[in-house]
Design a protein that fits this description.
Radius of gyration: 26 Å
Number of helices: 3
Strand order of the largest sheet: 1-2
Structural class: mainly alpha
Strand content: 5-15%
Amino acid sequence: MALAVLLRAAIVQKRTMVVEVRRLNDALAAAESEREEEELLFRIVVENASMAIVVYGDTGGILYSNAEVREMFFEGQSLDGHDFLKLLKEAPESLR
């Protein structure tokens, strides 16, 4: 009899845990979707900005550049991986 009670309690606990895992998975999916939408909006705004925007890492390597920067330095081609500090040093004074 005691074993049957323990077994029923374990089954109820498992069902409760399954419901909670599903709820957490749904919440995670919603959060990821929201983050993706925010990232897309950010990229659209930055990419279409009329000012040059460059993101570079600790060593100066370009991680991201918007269209304005790409037009200034490489006629629209990607700058990813190039050394921003070197490009800046070689750029005309008006672009520094």
